[in-house]
Design a protein that fits this description.
alpha+beta; 32% helix; 3-stranded antiparallel sheet; 5 helices
Length: 189
């Protein structure tokens, strides 16, 4: 038997053999690459909403195996809320942070790059005049989002910058935000 042939190779906590097997499987059967994620939301009172995440469709089947996650969404008092949860635009930054980091680590792992740590911070600028309908000249959403990464790994600055580029290239959340994915909003029947 060849050394390491049957051993599992874990890089940055990711089973790279399973990663490459999944890629090969999707190349042979592209239909299993289609996923549908879902969130349900219920308004509670004032600016408080409660969102729940449970099942999703992926790899050709429904998956309800995980425990339901609950997210309280509220505003700070200055925005008429009671601070019972992060506000929606903060959750957008949270989603971006998780997706960019996961994309970076997964692609580093596939390349055999060992990472000791990744930290990042996210800032977004919003002018409420758009949201409040005071000015049509002001965008309703974020005007700018800035992301800053610190990567602890035995690689060059150029290689770290390449990891950041890979995170941007392969992050579904980053690409959804920056490439304006169509969103349908309608009354449910």
């Amino acid at each position: 038997m060849e050394p390491g042939k049957d051993s599992v190779k874990i890089v940055n906590g990711i089973n790279t053999q399973q990663l490459f097997a999944t890629i090969d499987l999707i190349k042979k059967n592209p239909d299993i690459a289609s996923f549908k994620f879902r969130v349900n939301n219920r308004w509670e009172a004032g600016t408080l909403n409660r969102a729940t995440v449970k099942g999703f469709f992926g790899a050709g089947k429904e998956d309800n195996s995980r425990v339901e996650a609950v997210y309280d969404i509220d505003e700070p008092p200055v925005l008429l809320g009671n601070n019972k949860g992060s506000n929606p635009v903060e959750y957008l930054l949270v989603a971006l942070s998780g997706c960019l980091t996961t994309s970076m680590v997964a692609h580093a792992s596939a390349r055999g790059i060992h990472i000791r740590g990744v930290e990042s911070r996210y800032e977004g600028d919003i002018d409420l005049r758009g949201f409040l309908g005071i000015s049509d000249e002001v965008p309703v959403g974020y005007q700018n989002i800035r992301v800053y990464f610190k990567i602890d790994a035995d690689i060059s600055k150029d290689q770290k910058e390449e990891l950041v580029r890979m995170a941007r290239k392969y992050s579904p959340v980053f690409n959804t935000i920056t490439k304006s994915t169509p969103v349908s909003v309608q009354l449910d029947k």
